[in-house]
Amino acid sequence: MLVSGLLCVLCACGGFGVSDVTGTGNGTRGTSGNICPLLLVSFDGFRADYLDKYPFPNLRKFFSDGLLVDHLTNVFITKTFPNHYSLATGLYAESHGILASQMYDPETKKKFSLSNDSDPFWWNEATPIWVSVQNSGYKTAAAMWPGTDVRIQNSTPTHFFKYNPHVTFQERLGNLTKWMIEDSSVKFSILYWEEPDRTGHISGPENKAAMTTALKEVDDNIGILMDRLKQAELWEKINVIIVSDHGMAQCSQDRLIRLDSCLDPHNYTIVDLTPVAAILPLSDPIKVYNALSKCNSHMKAYMKELIPEELHYKHNQRIQPIILVADEGWTIVQNGTLPRLGDHGYLNSLRSMHPLMAAHGPAFRKGYKISSINSVDVYPLMCHLLGIPAMPNNGSFNAVRCALVGESCLDVAVVVGIVIGVLLVLTTLTCMFRLMKSSSSSSSRPFARLELQEDDDDPLLE
Ligand SMILES: *[C@@H]1O[C@H](CO)[C@@H](O)[C@H](O)[C@H]1NC(C)=O
Ligand SMILES: *[C@@H]1O[C@H](CO)[C@@H](O)[C@H](O)[C@H]1NC(C)=O
Ligand SMILES: *[C@@H]1O[C@H](CO)[C@@H](O)[C@H](O)[C@H]1NC(C)=O
Ligand SMILES: *[C@@H]1O[C@H](CO)[C@@H](O)[C@H](O)[C@H]1NC(C)=O
Ligand SMILES: *[C@@H]1O[C@H](CO)[C@@H](O)[C@H](O)[C@H]1NC(C)=O
Ligand SMILES: *[C@@H]1O[C@H](CO)[C@@H](O)[C@H](O)[C@H]1NC(C)=O
Ligand SMILES: [Zn+2]
Questions:
Q1: Is 293 in the pocket of ligand 1 (CB under 6 A)?
Q2: Does 111 sit in the ligand 2 pocket, CB within 6 Å?
Q3: Residue 200 CA, distance from chain mean position
Q4: CB 39 within 8 A of CB 407
Q5: Which segments within 194-286 are labelled E, that is strand?
Q6: Residue-wise pLDDT tens digits, 176-229
Q7: Of 185, 337, 341, 348, which one has the greatest count of Cβ atoms within 10 A?
């Protein structure tokens, strides 16, 4: 108690789980004040290497005083809904159940799509962080993050909007900060913005002019976010994590895979199409598989049982009997032309699919850089910052532990430096010792050989 009281005085909010976890489920814990609020923001489709190619003055200001994770290894398939749910749960898609933008459940015969996503059935295989935060006695606020307008595990965030892509960034942010200011028991807020994904799809990530405009707008929004939090007198006490769900690859009319040229469309149903197709065979599955696996050298076909384990995209009944995975930049169509110039969904091992992450706030070291973590690691980090118990997940807190103030971590470079330094000193001392010895014993030759043998045993010289 004394310790947590002291921490309170010292830094307003510790955020290191110093308070007792006595969740009441009704927000009564929030006034204790020693947990910093946390805001998670996603800019959809923010490919990590945009940062190397465009200026981003505001984003740079944000992370120069905090943490930059150069790129996140996200989850397969690298689509918006699966990855946003992985960020919120720390689970791979096969474990949280939001597997694609279009899904079909063979048992209930239900269908999921981006415009018909509000049946809790699809989401209830996992517990998103906003529900856990509420179960720990705090309140939450959400602005358009996928799933936050659905009653998952029987609750929505305390404050939320129905999804509406026409609501501006400023309005989302304004209402979110209003909820945070009016009620200090709102400890977790979550905000979603559609760009630069939208422009990436329409114009392609290689369209320099279009991307310059879209990315400038994203950076302006980051500036607006920082200003708004400063105005609200939250900036110094809130931990903010900026993430994204996936990157973006350039597509082309020259890189089309036409399924109709390989197999009569009456032989299967397409549940989801590109760049990862989910195929429900209507005739002999082996024959359908054989026809599709020979279809195009830039597309790989898998029977469900043989999907590689490392994709973590196999153990769920909503994964269809056959999946097709297009190579980077290739587009699967039934017939017809290229639907969009940019796309994502490809293998999560591809750098073009990786998004970035940056963070700022009292919990984070200043000017710290990490080259890569897994996007499922963000969840245990957030639970740690909020001092709430994490649900079983696929992430690791260790990966980001060293980015936090108050975690004693030695930098690899520093450790290597110390080791080399110590070795140098020891070597110098040994040499000096030998020199002194040999000069003082130069008159007594008979013993020289014996001394040498002794020195040869010195482990430092091996
Ligand atoms: C919240 O829960 C606590 C403990 O269960 C209870 O004492 C309190 O009355 C509840 N408050 C509200 C507003 O429901
Ligand atoms: C939306 O999904 C539900 C099942 O979850 C289904 O019953 C309903 O027909 C769907 N609506 C549309 C418009 O597809
Ligand atoms: C944001 O708050 C304003 C003022 O309370 C309200 O009029 C508006 O409808 C809110 N926006 C949304 C998307 O709910
Ligand atoms: C497609 O379906 C037809 C009719 O059911 C069947 O004769 C044919 O063998 C099937 N082709 C493949 C490749 O499965
Ligand atoms: C192309 O596919 C669409 C939808 O699958 C179908 O309705 C149409 O007949 C196909 N066109 C050709 C030329 O096969
Ligand atoms: C991911 O975490 C879930 C929940 O703990 C677990 O059931 C699943 O086996 C994990 N997946 C992997 C590949 O470890
Ligand atoms: Zn997208």
A1: no
A2: yes
A3: 19
A4: no
A5: 239-243, 249-250, 256-258, 268-272, 276-281
A6: 999 999 999 999 999 999 999 999 999 999 999 999 999 999 999 999 999 999
A7: 348
Q: Is 155 in the pocket of ligand 5 (CB under 6 A)?
A: no
Confidence of residue 441 (pLDDT cuts 50, 70, 90): low
Segment 13-19 mean pLDDT = 46
Say how many residues make up the chain. Answer: 462
Residue that the structure tokens 């490392």 belong to: 310
Ligand 3 geometric centre to CA of 227 (Å): 20
CA of 38 to the centre of ligand 1 (A): 23
Q: How far is CA 393 from CA 126, 147, 278, 424, in A?
A: 10, 18, 25, 45
Judged by DSSP in three states, 282 sits in coil
Nearest to 74 by CA among 244, 316, 256, 252: 244
Nearest CA to ligand 5 atom 12: 335
Token digits for 175? 């209402």
Contacts of 223 (CB under 8 A, 6+ apart): 57, 58
- Please report, as a single letter, which amino acid is at residue 406: G
Mean pLDDT over each residue of the chain, to the nearest integer:
90
Instruction: Determine whether 140 is an active site residue.
Output: no
Nearest to 14 by CA among 26, 28, 32: 32
Question: Which residue is catalytic, options 28, 78, 80, 156?
Answer: 80
Q: How far apart are CA 131 and CA 167, in angstroms?
A: 24
How confident is the model over 140-190, as pLDDT tens digits?
A: 999 999 999 999 999 999 999 999 999 999 999 999 999 999 999 999 999
CA–centroid distance, residue 335 to ligand 5 (Å): 6
Please tell me what DSSP assigns to residue 47.
Answer: B
Q: Angle at Cα 60 formed by Cα 54 and Cα 62, nearest 5°?
A: 140
Which ligand has the shortest distance to the CA of 26? 1
* Residue nearest atom 14 in ligand 5 by C-alpha distance: 335
pLDDT digits (tens, 9 = 90+) for 265-301: 999 999 999 999 999 999 999 999 999 999 999 999 9
User: In angstroms, rounded to a whole number, what is the distance separating the alpha carbons of residues 282 and 392?
Assistant: 37
How many angstroms separate the alpha carbon of residue 34 from the centre of ligand 1? 20
Question: How far from each other are the two terminal CA atoms of the chain, in whole angstroms?
Answer: 54
Residue nearest to atom 2 of ligand 1 (CA): 24
Ligand nearest to the CA of 24: 1
